[in-house]
Each structure stands twice: as structure tokens, then as C-alpha cells.
Design a protein that fits this description.
There is one protein chain. This protein has three domains: 2-74; 76-131 and 287-321, D-Maltodextrin-Binding Protein, domain 2 (3-Layer(aba) Sandwich); 153-277, Periplasmic binding protein-like II (D-Maltodextrin-Binding Protein, domain 2, 3-Layer(aba) Sandwich), CATH 3.40.190. 45% of the residues lie in helices and 20% in strands. Helix 1 (2-20) runs antiparallel to helix 2 (27-76). It has 323 residues and is an alpha/beta fold. Strand 1, helix 3 and strand 2 form a beta-alpha-beta unit. The strands form two sheets. Strands 1, 2, 3, 4, 6, 7, 8, 9, 11 and 12 form a ten-stranded mixed sheet that branches. The chain has a two-stranded parallel ribbon with strand order 5-10. The longest helix is centred in the first third of the chain and has 50 residues, at 27-76. The chain is built from eleven helices and twelve strands.
Length: 323
Amino acid sequence: MKRKTMTFVLAGILGASLLAAGCGSTSASSSEQSSADTSAAASSAETTEEASSEESAESTVAASSGDEASAAASSDLSGTVGTDGSTSMEKVISYLSESFMEEYPNVEVTYNPTGSSSGIQAATEGSTDLGLASRDLKDEEKDGLTQTTIAIDGIALIVNPDNKVSDLSIDQIKQIYTGQITNWKDVGGDDAEIVCIGREAGSGTRDGFETITDTKDQCKLSQELTSTGDVIQTVAGNPNAIGYASMADLNDTVKTLTVGGVACTEDTILDGSYKIQRNFNVITNDSKELSPQAQAFFDYITSDQAADLIEKAGAVPVSKANK
């Protein structure tokens, strides 16, 4: 289209030059030539405008087609995606699932809060699409399974809001949970017996806590509970209790202790200064191909799009840790 415009303009210039050189053209001819030049320029402008309008229309149609294709893909995908495992990951998976199901209204994502070890076992047996584990796979569990970390979580030490204690060292935590320190007055609190609350065997939170505090198989617990929510509720209701819970699930019914003077926050988890932290992992079975809907959900929760949702759920997106 540009070449055609240029041809019309050059023709006008050439006509004007011939007249200026005195080639014998009459005044009438000059007028006719000027009229022709004007007509040609107008024709060129119309051609260019029409081409521009056609290109704009084509772009609009292409964009519309892309949106329609995306919408069609979302509506075509249907079925159920099963997740099973860590209770500490409940809030993160809830945020991710709700957002995914808004985008794919014909897909339902289910969540079975059975604990990390059970989630890993379910992935091994193929009874769930995605296992959820708030701990890393052990050597004996790695055969045939793949671990994908989507977030990092702090394990917070919590007490009743009325407890005077605000900070404990890793060593003090170890002594409390192994029964060497049994009274709050020995760590700056009231003269009262310490009630240790923990998670059940197989819990990823318990595994992470005991590994970092070096208390594995040594903890003397007053109660073993099967979910993070139960731990928080029990500590909130007992002025002498201490427990540990996922940072992602904390609320104002309990007080969070600093550990060695460091608060459990996103920044201290990222820089490593808060020591009691662990990974949130999705476990897949290498020998079991994911269904289209399960693959779409897996791709969604491991994408950059998921980072904001993970952060809103109270955990630290692994993409931030890798920067």
C-alpha cells in the first residue's frame, strides 16, 4: 500500500517539474494535471485508510478469536482433581483451588486433609492425583515419586495470649519438648506447669519441627493432635500450653513467640534468619499420567500466576526464594 502512495506522489512531482521546465504545456493542461494530481493523492489516502481499517479489523478479530479459544479451552476442560495430604497446606490449596475453579468452572478440585505421610502414600498408590506434603520426601520414599516445591512455610511457636513469655531459643524449645524444662518460671513465665501440644506421627509439621529442634522421637507431649487447626484451638484455650503451627494458619487467638529473637515472617524466612521452616510440596507419581484437568491444575499452581495467591494464603512463594 505504501508503494502505491509513493507512485502517485512521484507522478505529481514529475508533472510539476515538466511544467516548470517549459515543455510547452498550456495553462489548461497545467490545470488538468493539477486536478489529476489532487485526485491521485485523494485516491492514495483513501487506499491507505482502507488498508489501515482492514488491518485494525483483522487485529480485533484475531484478539477476539484468541479470547474465544481460551474461553473454549476453559469450558471444554471438566472432571475432578483429587488432592490429599498435609493439613498445614489447607489454606494454600484452598486459595489456589478456588481461583483455578473460577477459571475452569467445569472442574472440581477436592482436598482430603490426611497429613503429609498419608498424602505421600496416596500418591504412591495412585489413589489421588496430587499428594501434598509439608516436608521433603525421605530417601526411602523417592523411588517413583517427584517432589515439586511450591512454597516455603515457617513453623511458628505459639502460646496463649496471656502467657508472659515472648521469646525462646532453639535450645530452650528442645528442653521444653523433651521434658527437661517443665515450668514456665524457668523461661521467664509464671509458676505453672508447661503443657506441650504437638502433632501426630506422620505429620509434616511435626517432622519439620523435630528435625530442626533436634527432638525427633524424644518429645514428651501432653496431647498429639491431627491438624494444625486443632493445635491452634487447644493452645488458645489453655494459658499454660505451648504448640507449633504453620505460619500460614496463624490467627489472633494465639501469641507467636520469637525464636532466638527472630520473628516468624516472610522476610526472615527468605533470608534464613528464622530457623524453623520447611517446604510445601506437591507429590506426583512418575508412573501415573495426570488427567488433562489434573495437569492443568498442576501447571496452574506451579506458575507465576499462583505466587500472589500463595502469598495471600500466608506462605512464601518458592519463586521469591529463588530470586
